[in-house]
Amino acid sequence: MDNYKIEKAPSYYSQAYNSIKEMIFNGVLKPGDRIYESKLASEFQISRSPVREAIRSLEKDGLLLIDNKSKITVYKPTLKDIEDIYECRQALESQAARLTTRKASNKDLEKIENILLETNEKIEHFDDTLIQNIISLNTQFHNLILSFSQNSRLQNQSSHLNLLTHFYRSIDIYEHNRNMDIFNYHLKIFHFIKKRDEEKAAQTMYNHINNDLQHLKDIISMNYTI
């Protein structure tokens, strides 16, 4: 009977949530843009209820802001925001790199290496259509290291930062040189993990996230700070 199961279609709420989120990540909805529940419902050709629910969830995620007059805008980052979030990432992910170096199996390391090989292939054939693929692969690299740390508390703390971290990656400038800079850091981190050098793996991860922070601060200073 398993072959005849009917797959449940995604709810309108889920579809609205994912569509709005992707519109933000892909720059269709830009930081500071005002959005309207009724307009989105019309564009999605659904009722306002699931759109309203999606907007509330995205507000909790930090991607949308709703003021006391119910005005809805796309989150606009400040220097203080990214400094706070990246300081948390430095602490959590450098420890994750340390633990992964200690605990990851050889099979785990192969999974990280495969992500790096795929990333390298995308960079070698780089064009603007691959930017989102590269961002996704970079996210997977970090997520695997968090996962292989085998520390559920650490992973849970990091998960609260995931969407805003992805948002920051989406506003980063991913031209060829920037891609190579990020990729080279990932290679160094993996090199020390594979060598089982906990201190250097942790320090390189810390330096990598600090490098990202400085780069983002430059971008946000020019474009988004309020």
Automatic annotation (TrEMBL):
Keywords: DNA-binding, Transcription, Transcription regulation. This is HTH-type transcriptional regulator YdhC. It comes from the Bacteria. The keyword Transcription regulation applies. It comes from Clostridium saccharobutylicum DSM 13864. The keyword Transcription regulation applies. One of its GO terms (molecular function) is DNA-binding transcription factor activity. InterPro entries: GntR_C, TF_FadR/GntR_C, Tscrpt_reg_HTH_GntR, WH-like_DNA-bd_sf, WH_DNA-bd_sf. Pfam families: FCD, GntR. Residues 10-77 form the HTH gntR-type domain.
